[in-house]
Amino acid sequence: MKKLISILLLSLYLVSTTELYQLLKLPVLIEHYIEHKELNPDMSLTAFLKTHYDNPVKDSDHDTDQKLPFVSHANLLSVVFTISPSLDFHCTEKIFNNLDIKKTFYKSVLYNKEILNSIWEPPRFYQS
Asked: Does any domain span residue 87?
């Protein structure tokens, strides 16, 4: 059951995001070829394809020709993710009376000066 669901979901995704949806128009191609074959019994499949894909002309059945697969293309599904800059920092000023506070800006849990300084050292070659 999982395999069937995964195949179904993958198929839906591919049909909606790639040109595979054009393959769903194959019955229109077959019907249109049969119509041309009835009008001209000598027409081969290659001649039909050459007429409609190599040098298409605007004739009486132009609307049907535009419904054939891979003749006209539509915009595919586009998924775009944007990150909203909703993170705001507000600084408040606190006043401490009679306290001796040392201001150390780089000594914190998230910042270790020794480790960060060692990252930017050139590589060392040891000879044994």
From this structure: no
Question: Whole-angstrom Cα distance, residue 26 to residue 29?
Answer: 5
How many domains, the chain?
Answer: 1
Locate tokens 């001796």: which residue? Answer: 100
d(CA 96, CA 119): 37
Output the pTM of the full model.
0.51
Per-residue pLDDT of 65-119, as tens digits, reads: 888 888 887 776 666 777 766 656 666 666 656 555 555 555 555 666 666 666 6
Measured at the alpha carbon of residue 110, what is the angle toward residues 107 and 116, in degrees to the nearest 5? 80
How many C-beta atoms surround the C-beta of residue 64 within 10 A? 14
Q: What is the pLDDT of residues 58-68, one digit of tens each?
A: 888 888 888 88
**Rounded to whole angstroms, how far apart are CA atoms 95 and 97?**
6
Q: What range does the domain containing 57 cover? A: 22-82
DSSP conformation class of 41: T
Residue 12: inside a domain, yes or no? no
Residue 46 falls inside a structural domain: yes
H or E element: which one contains 7? helix 2-17
Residue 42 forms part of a structural domain: yes
